[in-house]
Fold each of these.
Amino acid sequence: MGDLLCSLPIWLVPALPALGFLVLAVIGGQLPRRWAAVIGTGSVGLSAAATLGVAACFLRHPPAGGVRIETLWTWIDVGSFEIGFSLALDALSLVMIFVVSFVGFLIHLYSTEYMADDEGFSRFFAYMNLFVAFMLMLVLADNLFLLYLGWEGVGLCSYLLIGFWYTDAANGAAAQKAFIVTRVGDTAMAVALLLLFKHAGTLDVRQAMAWATENWAPGSTMAVVVALLLLGGAVGKSAQLPLQTWLPDAMAGPTPVSALIHAATMVTAGVYLIARTHAVFLLAPPAMTAVAVVGAATLLLAGCSALVQTDIKRVLAYSTISQIGYMFLGLGVGAWSAAVFHLMTHAFFKALLFLAAGAVILALHHEQDIFKMGGLRKRLPAVFWTFLLGSASLAALPVVTAGFYSKDLILWAAWASSAGAPWLWAAGAIGALLTAFYSFRLVFIVFFGDEKGHVDHRPGLKIVLPLAVLAALSVVGGFVETPGWLGHVTAFSHLTESALPAVDWAVTDHHVEHRLQAVVAGITLLGVLAAYLLYLRPSSIPAAVKATALGAWLSRFWLSGWGFDALYDRLFIRPFKGLAHLLRGDPFDEISATVARVAESGHSALSRTQNGRIRTYAFGIGVGAVIAAAIVVLT
Amino acid sequence: MTLVLLILVPLIGGFAAWIAGRRSADLSRWLSLAVALVELVLALTLWARHFGADVGSGGPWLEVVQRPWIPELGISFILAVDGLSLLMIVLTGFIGVMAVLVSWREIESRVGVYFACLLWVLAGITGVFMALDLFCFYFFWEVMLIPMTFLIGVWGHERRIYAAVKFFIFTLVGGLLMLVSILALTFTHAAETGVFTFAYGELLGTPVASPAAFWIMLGFFVAFAVKLPAVPIHNWLPDAHTEAPTAGSLILAALLLKTGAYGLIRFVVPLFPEASATMVPWALWLGVLGIIYGGVLAFAQTDLKRLVAYTSVSHMGFVLIGVYSWNELALQGTVMQMICHGISTGSLFLIVGMLYERIHTRDVTRMGGLWTQVPRLGGVAMIFAMASLGLPGTGNFVGEFLIIFGVFPVNIAVTVAALLGIVAATIYSLRIIQTTFHGPVAIAVKIEDMNHRELAMMAPMIIVIVWLGLWPSTVIATFEPAMESLFHLVPQLVIGGY
């Protein structure tokens, strides 16, 4: 069986959704919805099945060097610039294609019901399929140039899907913002590619990394520069400081899009990129610190913003930014595997939260304001229970949730790895308090209390099934890697060790680890308790805090995402628009226009001399003769 | 013989279309389509004949035709193609068919003369890409100018006369400067060797004393920079593009601008390597200026056609920095960029033309939400807007990134500025979509989506641009030997490179 599965080519995994896109793009408009749904969902389902087959082969017959390469054709071949259109499957890509195809399939299935009444039904599935294809290309790419293809491709799909309901100008603005802001990051990434190629002479990830390890001394300037530029690309795509501003607005897209692209997969591409190029980061300790600091700062900033949002999707959006901050923190302290582990569990519980939020939004006639919800626990029991499990996993409730295991690993590494520091751990621990608080604030406001909205649409099987599967994964998905005192399962790190280096521990004392775990567990429960006291029981405290001057200012400041939009508006958008307005008439055109005017006025001046009067002509001849004579005489 | 036919077919076809137009406009249309198709088939057979063939030691020339023309003055009729010329001719044939198709319903007056002018422009362009005698080259250069001026001035939009005169004067002044330089070069060569000739092959390597060489080079450079166009002598282009009929804009963007780039690659650098080396910093920064300035101005426009016109200024800036980086990556990227810009910007002009036929405006402030009515056209526009912002998977990405990889070792600041130009391209390309197909619905009248003729035009354009993005090696393999022989002539302009 294993051998048979090994004859399954890797390219099928991205090719199937790509084919689905092609069919839907060309004839989707003429197809009945049922068929569009079958093609759209089926192609991703088959891709997930192919992933299983490829994974089975990979696990049973681990390829030499831990990587299986498949070259499809030569993409570009100009002198020394040789780029293959080739795929590489190693443990890291395997985890990624598993997440992308399975979570992707569940979200497609969910969308067949969520989008059922939408005019653009087949267009939606065409874009979604294209997204999955590009995302799979991104994580399977054997070289950075091909990775860049997937990277830009998912950006395109993100743009198309954020602006899916295109007749609303606000959606279009959000879509353009997402594309443009991420492209600013991509510019940095492109320079990193240029430098790598110039020095290493190749863009093949493995070769370039090997070259860097061999030729760049640890801490050398070039390694630091390349790592920082890669970080620039990663912060754009993964919505980290200072390029995080596009993600909250990206919620303008349909909710399944937010679940798939802006929670589970695309936004974590930055984490993948850094994990993929970890060799350069290991050579650049300052860049590692930068990654950790970006992560720590982002998780705190976004956590604070999530506290005060009133739109259910914006709470989840800031939460996503914050959770990716944890992943960056993990990467920055060298806990590569832990960061990818959190990427996976986050994909499960955040996709779940978005999908459940979508079910709520759908049930309440597209209402997204959490204060107009309430009491939905009884009306939407399936949604409530799955949302609760998702929130528990997001808050990382100890032992029983997947989020706990992955976050715990990151926090421990933030303290104990050689690149870690107590203050990095402290940032993560404060973040845990924020996370627990805003997660359960959401649960209590939306599902408890008085009923405020009218539920007129109960989710069907195609919505409940993905919720149930993701809820199960949000619980058991963490059991693949557990701490020493709790079974000591190491399946995940065992799998990724062929692709990602282990943590370089500075502290190995398990007593410290246990004590810190207890502290974080306490903090988490404290956050839940605080949310309970403030939002479940009738409490005047939130209103009272908001009534104070500082409270009101902070609340507005956090609601607006720390004022970054206003800042960038002043710094970049207005100057650019002003410049464009100033130049709109093309000032260079004045040069030739002036030449033309001079010629015309010369023409009219000279033609005025031709006036038909003998007197004038005689005068002209006379003056001319005198001048000519003067020249002859005087020279 | 194919080379001569490539010029004769559209030349004679033009007369035939004119005569046919006196009897029936439709006859003239079908005849022109047939001529354009024959031209395309001729170009493709030429390509097929030399596809994958090894280039012998006799240089890069795949086919040569040589006849004395005015032997007393050393002028001969030399046509030759290498891989570079060949691809430009294939592009000309391909775009020629599209130009005929797009004019089908747009042009209703003096149809016969119109198609005659159109076919003659194609003949002139084909000649420019093949002529290897400088006098002959100048002759074709002017041949393509005059019918193009008529296309703009007779069949154009509101300000057509202004635009046509401006186009004519700019190109003519550039052309005359080139003529002066051609004569100066010939006389210098005659003084050195005693042989009076205009033949490219013999003029190569003429030693010209240094201050004179710079000025002679500059004459050529200005002529080609006007056509390219390079800022600050680009300003004929927005007017010409905007006022020309759709086929005129298509030919201007896809083909005429390429003759400028072709001239730089074929003549300026190989004939004057030292003088060109002194131009490098100027040319690089002029290129950057074009990229950024064109990008900002494209964003500022409200006339959709003018907007697309300024994107050309931006994209052709890449060509300028590519040529003057003069290394393998940059130069191959330049040729890719020339082809892909022709396809993608040409397509954008076709789309603008189709929109204009339907809603009779080019003002983006009066458009919006068109996707609801014309989703197919919207989808096609989306593809080419993405090509315009250099999305991987389209040929434009390959071209621009090869250029960027080539420029990087030459000048890092220029590279970074060019990358910022790509961000600018993102901004204006998305604005094209947002103001037309997306956004609130602004047009109340019912309009039709693309018809079969339009689909037949756009489908090949899409296939080609994606093909060039995913399998660029098919064309790279064709022009690579030509580029290598250019490197043989001029190994490098600046220190650095791979």
Amino acid sequence: MSERERKTSTRREAMASAAAAAAGAALARSALAGGKAPLAAQAPGHETHRFGLAIDLERCLRCQACVVACASENNVPPLGQESAGLSRPIHWMDMLAPPEGGQIDGVGRGPVPIPCMHCEHPECVKVCPVGATYLADDGVVAQVWDRCIGCRYCMVACPYSRRYYTWTAPAWPGGDPSSVNPDVAVRPAGMVEKCTLCQHRIRALHERARLDQEPVTDEALRRLPACAATCPTEAITFGDLDDATSALSALAKSPRAVRLLEHLGTGPKVFYLRGSR
Amino acid sequence: MASIGRRRFLGSASLLAGAAAGCRPSRDPYSVEKPPVPVASNLRMGSETQVLSTCGLCHAACGIRVRVVEGRAVKIEGNPASPINRGRLCARGQAGLELLYHPDRVSGPVRRAGGRGENRWIPLSWDEAIARLASEIGRLRTVGEPQSLVLLDGEDRGATHELWARLLRAFGSPNHIGHGATGTGATARAMAAMTGAARLPGYDFGEARLVVLVGTGALESSPESMHLAAAMARGARPRLVVAWPRLPPSAALVDEWLPLAPGGQAALLLALAHVLLREDLADESGLARARGFAAFTEAKGKAQPGLRERIVTDFAPDKVASSTGLRPQSIERLARELAATRPSVVVVDEATATDAAAAAGLVLNCLLGSVATPGGVRLDDGLGTPDFGPFALDAAAERGLAAGAIDGRAASQSAFESSRILALPEALLSGKPYPAKALLLHYSNPVYSKPGGARWRQALAKVPLVVSFSPLFDESALFADLVLPDHTFFERWDVLSPGRGTNILTIRQPVVQPIRGTLATGEVILRLAAALGGSVAKAFPWPGYRRAVEAGIASLPGGAGEVLAALESQGVWRVPAVAGGAKRESGSGAGSGAALLDVRGALLADAIPEVAETPDLPFLIVPFRGPGHAEGGMRQLPWICELPLTQSDARRPPVEISREDARKLGVRDGDGVVVESPLAHVAMRARVRQGIRAGVLGLPLGGGAWPVASAGSDPIGLLESIVDEKTGQWLAQATRARVRRDA
């Protein structure tokens, strides 16, 4: 176990990463059986995960498909006219817009899609008084919805404002929630919610790979979260930074790659690729 | 209890949600509240499927793959097999489920109970509704006035559209009226004149190195934006030059902006052609035999200078400086760049093109050698357009068709793409050339979507029978006597030909069982024809819509069976590479470029609008189509209304104003302003921008109140219905206005 993992590993962790645990068990079994290649592992010698995103601003059309795809996948209901007027809409994937003609420091012109940065050293986790939010051992800054008491310390602590308070109970137009995704819990009023990098999709993929006894490939990961899956220009790339051969790792090393507010030392795992012209 | 909830939640979220579908939410304060999800009619516990279909929220016809869990559609993804979107999807497509499960959907056929617009209805069965409609319009035929039946058809292709065309002909009405005059009509007419077929073009963004966008559709909202995105996903990144009065939110991708004056499209395009011809940079081979390029003689015997001569004498960049509002040097530099950076292509936004601009755009592309070549304009073969075969007209139908169309299009322009929808309110109100007795609205909500909206309301009131096929109660449906609600595209079976050079067919299949008592309009047409009887019924020999579609595609290679098998397994079917049997325009082989047939349309640039100085109304309104635009708007989809970049709620859209103008008026970003046009005054919020030309107001289309609000409060009500006299095309950028701060 690395230094980072040892620090954060708790019972909570173990429960949350059922998939990883299962993979570990399977690994042990296959070692006993003495034949098969290690399961659910990517490149040889690589068994940890640090998931992140890269967003190529040279491609991003600012079409906001990622915003709606995220809401649809993660059961983020629209808030309706009244709440929208109060600037309360919830966008796990939002658009960060500098004043026109202005710049976002180091990133460049124009609005950019902004999900949770899934920091290596998340400020939100440090302040949570009930341990509802945590850095999972796959790098996702995750949250146990049930545990959140809605104190909003994390919202204050997050330098990227990537957390949202649920001012109202979820309500679908006309009260018909038929389109809710059964894989994602619906959050009640009075708590804070955030991007999970579509953790349920990550877990499902690893679970499937375990059952099929196939490795999880970078190819399968690349467009896994709802935002990356829908991006019309394929500007969003998901992947594992611990896999040196992943597309994300290559993009993160690009001279165009920048991170937001890097000087704060939060270590965001979302990389923006600056426009080259 | 709390700990059980927590553990279950952590361990298996899907199991929990599955259970929640069946039980009421617990009162336990620590439990997560689950909405009581309605049980679908065909529920099978734990079932999960992916259904291939086709998006219906714009003209692009992207392939979709819908995840259906226990009979409920829960997520839309792109279909990777579709060459249009290659598995991706735009914001609108992602929000489609809000349409499927929309609370304002019409539950089944209804007839009006109270006065028009009162929104009181009496439910009918489908048999009753169709019998009622058949007897009402059948009477028009028996009294010898079949021409008094008018159809507004918001679709311009596909089997339902073709069946409507067939029904109207068999019935004897020449009044099959499309929305082209406020949209793609000019482009369709230019294509018809120049290439022989009124099929919209596509663009090969993947190969082009320089793309000049005249209009911002490809960057904000249009079928072209998906084509451009798919090319960029494959790594293409052409240099992008935008010549338009305003920049879209994706301005950061734009390499150069020429802030064109409103209405200056054709002048700019012909000035670019002028520079190419003057500096001998043009390839004239594709125009050598085109009618109207060299000097020609009119039918009346009058000699006319050809387009070439007109371009050379009248369209020097400095001569058109007042129309384009651009420095001549900028135009000259762009022309040289277009010539030097091959392949280069000019995209005249089809939604906002005037006739002259659409024609001039094609001429310019032809001079660049960019028609039907890699990196240029893609012509469409039109394969897969349903062909239902000939049918016989009876004497009543012949007489009705001879009466001429009610919208005043010339007999020589009887084609659908020439219809003049904006002439309709006047015709309905005046009863000239003849009164309309029945108005059918298919994919049409003119009261909301058309300029001069209040006029439409009055006009609809004059028509004795108004029938809407809208699946939602929209503004126009509220004025209807009969509403026969269509399925949404999630509940319908259909085969579509997306066109634009894609050369594919794509299937639409029911994703879920119809969740309301709706019926596909294609089916209604067949049942209506049968109820009308006589020669009308004979023209529709098919027992159902699906059989009609199969008959319509039977002549394709492999026959309907093979095509449908491919469609059902892949979602799309690629038209096999052009073989001996398929028609193609002469000279359109790869590399050589296509020859144009008739370029006289570009001479309409004569009608460069005189920029009348009106000190009282100093601004020109430039309406634009953001992600929320569609016939009838996207304001009923809350996810689209609440997109972060609209920076306010799209149900109350902002008006864009330049920094200079804002400073003069003392308006700051977000301030309330009142915009006044000759038609209306509307209170809006100002959005102060750098990326908009001074003297211009940017007005987003597709926003507005939902549920349907009172008359005249929507910003679209500001727009005047000013048309090009020769073609009936709406001049979208000709409405003048003034702005003042809202006290």
